[in-house]
Amino acid sequence: MTYDLLLAGAEPFDVAVTGGVIAAVGPSLPRDARVVADVTGRLVTPGLIDLHTHVGPGYWGIDPDPIAWRTGVTTWVDAGSTGAYTLDLLRRTFREVRVPALLNISAIGLTGRTGESRDLTNCDVPLAIDTVQQHRSLVRGIKVRVDRETVGGNGVEPLRRGLAVGDACGVPVMVHIGTTPPALDEVLDLLRPGDLMTHCASGLASPLGPAVRAAVDRGVLLDLGHGSGAFAFDVLERQLDLGLAPHTVSTDLHCRSLPGPVFDLPTTMAKLLAIGMPLTDVLEKVTAAPARALGLPGGSLTVGAPADLAVFDVRAEEHEVVDSHLQVRLSPVRLVNVATYVGGRLLPPSWPQDPPPWVALTPTQHEALARRTRQLRELLNDPLVDASGLAEQFPRKP
User: Could you name the domain of life of the organism this protein comes from (predicted)?
Assistant: First the structure.
């Protein structure tokens, strides 16, 4: 048969695509395809799945498309940007990528910076249940942020309500942890097998006690959720010593973390490599593991799976990586994306947006953004080729 697309010469094997799904995998597949992409020596992975991002409307949201095409992230789980009142805004937003959602237990979602669960009337269980039931293909779980600023004096009551929705709809709950109260142990003790604790290596919450071990032992999943202030190298290193590795690796990418310290998912993956995690394990935590956690399509290079694909150069280049508290480690490998496909379609280049005006940036970040703009302008203002690279499109008659 003639394939639509063939990624030839890839590691670990060739991948052929027809009709938006993977049609064949194996070494040295026949070069019978409408488009043959030579990716010799490069790593082909399933499209990366970022389990914790903010791409919906509101204070934190970013446009994923300008990041997806250069990073290999094809599925962006919006982790609570929208609630029952605002979910339709997410549905109406056109995306190049896939955007499943975790519905915020607060119906107002993240329209502001924080505080969405201080008024418990926003945490309407019947409304959230109805919303999940009406949007089953989109909503894959519930998100509850539990920290001092978000819940105020309501303690773990918003989480109890989120879990009630999860029980009624048969979906997992992702809980954000941060500054106390409520106490971390009180949060963890409520979680069920299959629920997720994000910001699992937070330097603010420092989840290292016996309650974390008990939660993991009963099937609670740990998600990295890097974010602006929720990832500390020393905490994760201690967790690895205790056998508490994250089940999934996500960025919590939003308008404040995108200019740093997160930057993107491949950079976050390099941070796990920097503390000694093997590349194969890291890849599993951004593909198959998040797909299983939320029942998402993709996450594997198997025949019949969606042809969401990422192609990387894996370069043995030692480089510095930084956590949320400016601790630095050295990663031995740099992951450089060279192509990203969604449903077998190559994502086109897209220029990233600048951070919104409410994001405070350092002078160095401002200058870096301005320098990037100048460099792009200079690049595009140069003619694409000189005369030697052209053909006469309309030849003159002799």
Answer: Bacteria
Residue 168 · residue 195 · CB < 8 Å: no
CA distances to 39, 146, 160, 185, 193 from 188, rounded to whole Å, are: 45, 11, 12, 5, 11
CA dihedral 357, 361, 366, 367 (to 10 degrees): 180
CA angle in degrees (0–180, nearest 5) for 200-206-210: 85
Residue with tokens 């019978």: 32
| E strands present in 95-217 | 101-104, 139-146, 173-177, 196-198
Query: What pLDDT, on the 0 to 100 scale, is given for residue 71?
Result: 98
pLDDT for the residue 59: 97
| Block residue for tokens 């249940």 | 129
Q: State whether the Cα torsion 228-229-230-232 is positive or negative.
A: positive
Question: How far is residue 160 CA from its own chain's centroid?
Answer: 26
Residue 341's Cβ-side half-sphere holds a number of Cα atoms within 13 Å equal to: 29
Q: pLDDT of 226-247, one tens digit each? A: 999 999 999 999 999 999 999 9
Rounded Cα–Cα distance for residues 183 and 207 (Å): 11
Per-residue confidence (pLDDT) for residue 91, from 0 to 100: 83
Tokens encoding 195: 């629920």
Length of the chain: 398
Single-letter residue type at 240? L
For residues 11 and 314, what is the distance between their CA atoms, to the nearest angstrom? 11
The pTM of the full predicted model, rounded to 2 decimals, is 0.97
